[in-house]
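User: Here's a chain of 421 residues. Predict its fold as C-alpha cells.
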Amino acid sequence: MVLALAAHFNWPLRQLDVKNAFLHGILHDEVYMVQPPGFEDPTYPNLVCKLHKSLYGLKQAPRAWNERFTAFLPPLGFTTTYSDSSLFVKAVGSTLVILLLYVDDIIITGNDSLAIQQVIQSLTSEFDLKDLGSLHYFLGIQISRTANGLFLSQHKYVHDLLVKTAMVDSKPCDTPCLPSHRLLKDDGDPYNNPTQYRSVVGALQYLTFTRPDIAFSVHQVCQFMQCPMVSHYTAVKRILRYLKGTMTYGLSYSSSALDIKAFSDADWAGDPNDRRSTTGFVVYLGSNPISWSSKKQQTVSKSSTEAEYRALSSTAAELDWIKQLLSFLQIPISSVPVLFCDNMSAIALSFNPVQHQRTKHIEVDVHFVRERIAQHQLLVQFVSSKEQFADILTKGLSASLFHTHCNNLMLGSSKHEFAGG
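Assistant: Prediction complete.
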C-alpha cells in the first residue's frame, strides 16, 4: 500500500540498512556468557561475563533491537499504530514522512525530500547505517521506476528458485494449475523427499508477494506439507514451469484515483478432502492491487450463499484494516469502499437484517459485513462472474480467462488496462 501511494504521489523512496543491528539492543534480563576465546582474563579465568548489550544468537536479541529502535523514533516525531507495528509516520503540518521497518532493513518515503534527509541524518547519528540510496531491491523484491510509476517483480528470486530445483531448462506452461483441478490427500505414492517439498513450497509462498496469479496454486500445495505425495510435487513442478515462462512478470503501480474497491469470491465446497470452501479476495487502491488472499474457510458451508457471505465478511474486515492504515497515514478517501460479489443471494443476505431459518447457524462475527453496510461504511455491488477478478484466487481457470485476470491484477509489463470490466 505504501508503494502504491508512493507511485500515486511520485514520492521519493529511500532504503537504509542497519549494520550489526542486533548489537545495538540493550538487555533488560540478566544474561551471562563464558569469556570468549582469546579474551580470557588470566587473573580470573573461571569468571563469566555479564552482558549489557545483546549479541547475535541470543533469543532476546531481536526484541532488544526492536525496542531500542522504536524507542528512538518518538523523539523524532514518529508515531506508530496498532494496525501495523512496523509502520511509523511523522506528520508536521503538510509534511509527511513514512518509515517502514523489517528487522534491520528500512524504507523511508514521504512528500518532502528535505524532511526525509533530516530523518536519515538523525538515524545515522544514533545507529551505524548504510544509506543504499533510492529503493531498488528490498527483501528479494525488485522495485524499479517507470514512466507511469513503479514496477515490482521477483525476477532474480524466481531464477534462483528454478536453479535450486533444476527447472531452468523446463518447458513453460500457460497456467500454474489445470482448470478446476484439485489435489487429493492420498493420491498415489508418498514423495521420497518431503524436506525438499517443504523448502520449495515455502519459497513459492514468499513469491506470492508480487505474484497473486500463483496464490491459489500455492495455497493448494501448501496443504500437504506433512505428508506430500508424488502427485503433489508434480503440481509444484507445474507452478515452476509456469514461472519459467513468466519470470519477468510483476506488479505495475501507477497514479490513479484514490478510491478503494475489492472483489470477493468463494468456490463452494471446492476442496474434495474436507469439502470446505476457498475464499479469494483482491483489494485495489485506485487501479493498484494492494492486498489479496486465497484461503480455505474454517468451517464447511451448507450452501454457496453461505460460502460467498463468509468471503464477503473476510474481505470487509480487510477493508476495515486498510481504511485504518490510510487514516493513520492521513490519506483521505473521499468515497465509500465498494465490494463486488457475483452472488446475488449473498448480497441480499448482507443487506437483510431478518434472521432466516437457513442462516441461523452462521456465526455472529460473520454478520460483521451487514453492520458495515448498515452504517454506510461499505457498499456491496453485484458483478458478473466473467468480471469477477477474484475468481483467479479460488480455482484453476482456463488459459484465456486466467490471462485476462492476470491483466486485471496489473501483472506483466508496466502498462496495463483492465480487461473485461
